[in-house]
């Protein structure tokens, strides 16, 4: 039988793929270009000139650092919460059988399946009913609701591909539950947890909708950028910050892809 792997894709398909990539990534390239423009008040194409001054201006603006610090702290704590809860949920759903297991699995992934505005309104209403003032922790709780889903999806897939015979063998050899988790389970799911954590961090860092309903007067980086676009002071500064956001979110995603691309080769999966 003739293999199709050596055949070249049709020219029309190549052109369509190139157009699709340009449609997706050309706006991002324009953001990078406008970070170097000499025009301060509007976006003019082509840029009248190029300069590096906006990087220094951005560096010296305290509002940028405040927003960046808040976003990093929220993303880090939300990711930590998601790693703990997501891993525990994944272990319970994948390694045990109990009544309502599929319902619980659906409820865990529901926050990321619902539109963000629904989640935001629900959280805002819950905080109002409980008389909880908006603070750093309301943002963290809002972000943790969907970060848990990212970790859960990665962990549950890896748990299901990990051989249960290894855990049984560890128990037969006298290891307790903690030793089995540390020396058998964790090495098999570590890359999935790391990838899920990085994806959760990236998702939290650039979240807008849920943050709008849970932040009050606080500004994360995406909220700060939105405010700057509505009432701009120095437009290129917004583009410089956008470059940082692209890099902060892109690098974890690429690293997570690298970690999980060979995820089907799990120790003991064929035993």
From TrEMBL:
It comes from the Bacteria. Gene3D superfamilies: MetI-like (1.10.3720.10). It is found in: Cell membrane. InterPro entries: Bact_Polyamine_Transport, MetI-like, MetI-like_sf. Residues 68-256 form the ABC transmembrane type-1 domain. Keywords: Cell membrane, Membrane, Transmembrane, Transmembrane helix, Transport. It holds the Pfam family BPD_transp_1. This is ABC transporter permease. It comes from Mesorhizobium opportunistum.
């Amino acid at each position: 039988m003739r293999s199709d792997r050596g055949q070249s894709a049709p020219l029309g398909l190549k052109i369509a793929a190139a157009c699709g990539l340009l449609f997706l990534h050309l706006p991002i390239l324009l953001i990078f270009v406008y970070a170097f423009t000499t025009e301060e008040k509007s976006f003019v194409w082509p840029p009248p000139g190029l300069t590096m001054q906006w990087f220094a201006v951005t560096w010296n603006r305290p509002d940028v650092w405040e927003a960046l610090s808040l976003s990093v702290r929220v993303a880090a704590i939300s990711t930590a919460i998601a790693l703990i809860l997501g891993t525990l949920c994944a272990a319970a759903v994948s390694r045990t059988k109990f009544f309502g297991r599929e319902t619980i699995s659906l409820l865990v992934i529901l926050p990321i399946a619902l539109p963000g505005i629904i989640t935001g309104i629900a959280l805002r209403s819950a905080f109002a009913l409980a008389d909880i003032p908006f603070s750093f922790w309301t943002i963290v709780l809002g972000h943790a609701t969907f970060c848990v889903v990212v970790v859960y999806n990665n962990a549950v897939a890896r748990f299901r591909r990990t051989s249960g015979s290894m855990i049984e063998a560890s128990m037969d050899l006298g290891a307790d539950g903690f030793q089995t988790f540390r020396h058998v389970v964790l090495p098999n799911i570590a890359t999935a947890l790391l990838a899920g954590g990085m994806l959760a961090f990236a998702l939290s860092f650039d979240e807008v909708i849920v943050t709008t309903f849970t932040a009050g007067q606080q500004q994360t980086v995406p909220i700060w950028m939105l405010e700057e676009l509505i009432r701009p002071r120095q437009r290129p500064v917004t583009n410089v910050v956008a470059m940082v956001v692209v890099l902060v979110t892109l690098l974890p995603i690429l690293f997570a892809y690298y970690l999980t691309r060979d995820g089907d080769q799990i120790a003991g999966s064929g035993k």
